[in-house]
Amino acid sequence: MDRRQQKTRTAIFSAFTALLAEKSYHKITVQEIIDAANVGRTTFYAHFAAKDDLLQALCQELFGHIVGSALDRTHTHGLYSDGSAPESVFCHLLQHLRENDNNILGLLACQSSEIFLRYFKNSLNELVRTQLVERRGAAQLPLPQDFLINHISGSFVEMVLWWIKGRMKQTPEELDGYFRAVIEPVL
Amino acid sequence: MDRRQQKTRTAIFSAFTALLAEKSYHKITVQEIIDAANVGRTTFYAHFAAKDDLLQALCQELFGHIVGSALDRTHTHGLYSDGSAPESVFCHLLQHLRENDNNILGLLACQSSEIFLRYFKNSLNELVRTQLVERRGAAQLPLPQDFLINHISGSFVEMVLWWIKGRMKQTPEELDGYFRAVIEPVL
DNA sequence: TAAGATAACAAACACCTTGTTCGTTTTTAT
DNA sequence: ATAAAAACGAACAAGGTGTTTGTTATCTTA
After folding, report:
1. Fewer CB within 10 Å: C terminus or N terminus of chain B?
2. Pick the CATH number of B1-48 from 3.90.1200.10, 3.40.50.300, 1.10.10.60, 3.40.30.10
3. CB contact set of B159 (below 8 Å; sequence gap of 6+)
């Protein structure tokens, strides 16, 4: 693959994420993005059909990666029920978030966080579903499976949002403790 | 207050909500709104500084009202701990939603639902906070108060979203049962 | 019911954003 | 070294925004 393509692609991505830290997604113009990325107008549209496309691509790259790696982890460690606290997938996810390799936290904390939160939650849904189905037969669950999955990933996402907005005063391990406290009783 | 003002205000509101059922908030233009409302351009801007203003006003009117009435209710019935199932505030809230006086459901189900969900959750936070503080001393809580408040209102909002997306197959009473099942264990 | 105030209106405006086109220049891969 | 691929600047039409201006319709209250 042409180096030039990679270069402009990442230039656009990082200019975009930088802008997202400043202002709402919908107030960001393509003009600002290409100025910040130092990229020609034509070039931008050669890579992305529109601003929405860029957003989509960014989400896919970030969340696809983070949840994908968490999914691998569930195969060895399980969601929760193995009892070994610091190995829980959720704890690992939180640690991964705090390390913040590719600035996911920035996106979840920005003015347009709802957009990324929804994407995050959808990704989590799959993760939780596969895990829940593996662990227990559907018949044993005290509540409808769909409801439970939604409750778990929804609670997690809301917790992360709360964490970030509160300036992340808790460690991932503490937070994982809170989460276990509210989720394990209903499993 | 001048009847003309009320008339155009409600005309704009209902045109706006109708449009929201069709397309995303950000793709709706002021032109479409005033066409649908049959209102002059100048008139629109006399009422609202911009599209965002209209959104804000709509949210305030709808959620302010629904949560306000729920808040009154807590003074007589409490959040949950009185034990009388069908009287819980959350159940009442769900019933109120299903009746759908002013089309709140439409907004929570529309393409731009995230916007309204956030607003809804913020309103709920106050409701839950006042209730939680009244009921129990902060010292008795097993988890940080802020975390709990966020968890409760967050879970509720996510549940409502799940309910709507699943075409509301459950009755408010069923749903309230689910909610109690996942919340009461952690109180 | 008449007078004055208030609100709605249409038309035109300057300005900005979008997405596309075209011809040219730079970079890459072979 | 050359041909393909990518980036570029400039210019474009189309459409949205928010404001201004002067006029008309409607309310309030005296």
Report:
1. N
2. 1.10.10.60
3. A147, A150, A151, A154, B175, B178, B179
